[in-house]
Design a protein that fits this description.
Largest sheet: 8 strands, antiparallel
Order of helices and strands: HHHEEEEEEEEEEEEEEEEEEEEEEEEE
Distance between the termini: 28 Å
Shape: globular
Strand content: 25-35%
Length: 428
């Protein structure tokens, strides 16, 4: 047991084990002094046995095991709005790599913290297929970063999402969709609060400032395989897309059990009203269709798959125009922190263009641009060796001009096979 685990266990024990203040008075009223002495001895033994029984499961239980909600006074989570920290561009030298880069090129999946500039691998999951009630689902095993030890630890959660700043995570229990959302303390390694919901949720996403969550509700498992969902349903016929309304396809295949979303206030651990959303709203036939946030945190966003096009809702679930200054993106990285550069679509070679002119300013020999480390470097998915197999790949740090590439992780043998690990990148 580590010192932190021992301290946490003793703190929890001290909060749970207590003797009623009026125990002696009640005993005096009911027993003689002799009987009281015997009774007190029995109580002491019982208290000791209860304390040991309480302590043992706390010591041997997994650090990430879901904790039981015991009720009581509302818990206020001390979240603070996240403020993006500027990162100066660090010149790369083969003999002295940039000091803001943390890599683990020896282990796959990684054991040591992966980070570059303003982003870090906050979590990753491995996956496999398993049968549930005769249907096939994707089962994820989550590994969360411990920012104190700078290592990754296996968890028992069914879904996890780390907030910017790496201080808090939102977690769901193993059987999705879940009836409550846990607010997990990344440093103390415990759930600080549970948020109950009437409509079960299968995914959560943090707002850019790390104070709210959008929780996506489903009435069935959100990770059913395509062969296990019903494809006979179609949305009502619609007119062809027009310049006035580019979101209107002719038809859409429905394969989701998504029902709507909640906006959760993390500080008070409360979910707002449930907002139902028509599954035919966008041309997206994915089974899992989690909502996310707009870049400014004022709207809820969903991405259409037929085109790299974002559709938006206000916080009450009503369709809304894109926020001012929104730039449609074709990659996960999107726009650079200073707003001047745009990461291009997946596929080797990738490219980066100027937002104002569309001019190509650099090409990179990588498969995908995933996140901006700073204004001139990106975390990307690079392939091994001469790239004869695109599925053998790993994370790299690449410059906009493509001239400098630094490995961040060991290469995965095959990223599309079960047990492969998938990184989650978060602002730190």
């Amino acid at each position: 047991m580590t010192p932190r685990m021992l301290k946490q266990t003793l703190e929890e024990w001290s909060r749970e084990v207590h003797v009623p203040a009026d125990l002696a008075e009640r005993a005096l009223r009911r027993r003689s002094r002799l009987r009281l002495t015997r009774f007190a001895g029995a109580v002491s033994c019982a208290a000791l046995v209860a304390a040991v029984a309480l302590l043992v499961p706390l010591v041997v239980a997994p650090r990430f095991a879901p904790q039981v909600d015991t009720g009581g006074a509302p818990v206020v989570v001390p979240v603070q709005p996240y403020r993006v920290q500027p990162y100066r561009v660090q010149p790369y030298r083969a003999s002295s790599p940039a000091r803001d880069v943390l890599a683990d090129t020896e282990n796959s999946p990684p054991k040591k913290m992966i980070a570059a500039g303003r982003v870090a691998v906050s979590a990753y999951f491995t996956w496999r297929r398993r049968a549930v009630a005769g249907r096939e689902v994707m089962d994820r095993t989550w590994y969360l970063l411990d920012p104190v030890t700078e290592s990754y630890e296996k968890t028992e959660w069914g879904w996890a999402e780390v907030a910017p700043g790496l201080r808090w995570a939102a977690v769901l229990e193993k059987d999705l969709p879940a009836r409550r959302i846990g607010i997990f303390d990344m440093e103390k390694r415990q759930v600080r609060a549970w948020v109950s919901v009437d409509h079960p949720v299968g995914g959560v996403s943090w707002s850019p400032d790390g104070t709210r969550l959008v929780a996506t509700a489903y009435d069935d498992h959100p990770d059913l395989s395509r062969d296990s969902v019903h494809y006979g349903r179609r949305c009502p016929a619609r007119v062809a897309a027009t310049p006035e309304d580019p979101r209107q396809p002719r038809f859409q295949t429905v394969s989701t059990s998504r029902t709507g979303f909640y906006v959760v206030d993390v500080a008070t651990a409360t979910a707002g009203d449930f907002h139902a959303v028509d599954p035919c709203w966008t041309d997206n036939s994915n089974v899992r269709r989690d909502f996310a946030w707009s870049g400014d945190g004022t709207l809820i966003r969903e991405r259409s798959l037929s085109r790299w096009h974002d559709a938006f809702l206000d916080l009450a679930g009503r369709p809304h125009d894109a926020p001012p200054g929104h730039v449609a993106t074709e990659s996960k990285a999107g726009v650079s922190p200073d707003g001047t550069l745009l990461a291009g679509r997946d596929g080797m070679p990738t490219k980066v263009t100027e937002v104002s002119t569309g001019k190509v300013v650099g090409r990179q020999q990588v498969l995908q641009l995933l996140a901006w480390a700073d204004d001139r470097r990106l975390v990307a998915l690079g392939c091994a060796g001469t790239c004869d197999n695109e599925f053998r790949n790993g994370l790299v740090l690449v410059s906009v001009d493509g001239r400098q590439t630094v490995p961040l992780t060991a290469d995965r043998k095959h990223s599309q096979k079960p047990e492969a690990w998938e990184p989650i990148l978060t602002l730190r």
